[in-house]
Amino acid sequence: MLKDKKVVVGISGGIAAYKVCEVISRLFKAGAEVRVVLTDSAQRFITPLTVATLSRHAAYTDEDFWDSHQPRPVHIDLGEWSDLILLAPLTANTLAKVSLGLADTLLTNIILASNCPVLAVPAMNTDMWQQLSVQSNWRKLQKDERYHILSPNSGLLACDRRGKGRMSEPTEIIEAIESLIHSRGQEDLRNTKILISAGGTREHIDAVRFIGNPSSGKMGLAIAKAAAYRGAEITLVHAPIEARLLEDLPEMERFPVVSSAEMERSLLDQADQFDWIIMCAAVGDVRSKILHNNKLSKADLPESIELETIPDIAAQLGHKKRADQKLIGFAAQTGEITAPALAKLQRKNLDAIAANSIDLPDSGFGSETNQLVFIDKEGRQATIPMAPKLAIAHHLLDFIKQL
Ligand code: C5P
Predict the structure, then answer these.
(1) Which of 54, 154, 237, 300 is 20 to 30 Å from the Cα of 344, by its Cα?
(2) Which pairs count as long-range contacts for 387-390, CB under 8 Å and 24+ apart, including other chains?
(3) Which one has a higher pLDDT value, 335 or 98?
(4) What is the pTM of this model?
(5) Is 86 within a domain?
């Protein structure tokens, strides 16, 4: 998603500057062209040599701003060049300057001499963050459509305080950059309410044993993140997902469930409040007729389990949805994928279905990448070749928008 994209990374003087080195390295490895600008105080924390080595390009400081040998003002060159400007860490001082439109450093001049989206990622001590002046600058910045934000997280700070002020983690910053580059900074899903299901349900037999499937929830989470970065209001109903995958998500409402019955209740109860419903969860097809609340001893385990069919949630949603709602399903297939997916779309009254092979390498359950065929109810198809799940999620959202 970042190949040949031009990113200016503006670092101001905070200890979180060391974490931005990881972001620069990942941007370079993802194929982006990176130019790093350091304020004077940023250079007290990390050196121009560090960022020049990681970005494979000379670093920029205020000395370049005043350099009389430049053929063209460097702030104009970099401002016109950039597809996106990342401000990380954004200190209280640089935030104040940016919110006022001051231009007394190379970095603040580049911002004013450009029109691309800006991703603002602050980091500071909790008391500094909570000052009325800082909060008012932060709110002011958000009124400007150019600015996109990753608010600080809570946790242990380098000043030994526990509280709000930690900079977002590199993975979250990279995903936000990828999303902003894809949507060119347009929050094109603002005012769209989306209900997403994710993960694999567990149908318990007793307290510890269950019938399940290998869904990791990564595809559903990628859709939730991509849509949130594009301004949508997200509600995520998810079966058990590894805790680390749920860290540092953009703002969204979450309903954790375990069984298909819990997922069914949660989804059917709230479905009518949403514009789009995306059924990405791998919901079980069968469950044990009898549920034992305790753990059965080995000696008590039955020799066979009588199963019952699980009601299809997507089909129920499909038959009660309003004409203005869009319902999207997934079809995980082995072998031929499009014909069975189309049959599911019709049976469940979906508006579109995303069909994916689970027998290809690096696709489907648990993988970081995927490849899909989107099919709508008119039979139109779009094939999305192998890509990271966040990129696939953005293409899926583009496809749903056109329905
Ligand atoms: O029929 P199949 O399970 O392959 O269909 C997959 C689609 O149906 C997915 O969108 C899945 O979330 C949904 N589904 C459901 N309820 C079930 C089984 C599947 O909503 N009991």
Answers:
(1) 237
(2) 387/1, 388/1, 388/222, 389/218, 389/219, 389/222, 390/1, 390/175, 390/178, 390/179, 390/222, 390/225, 390/226
(3) 98
(4) 0.92
(5) yes
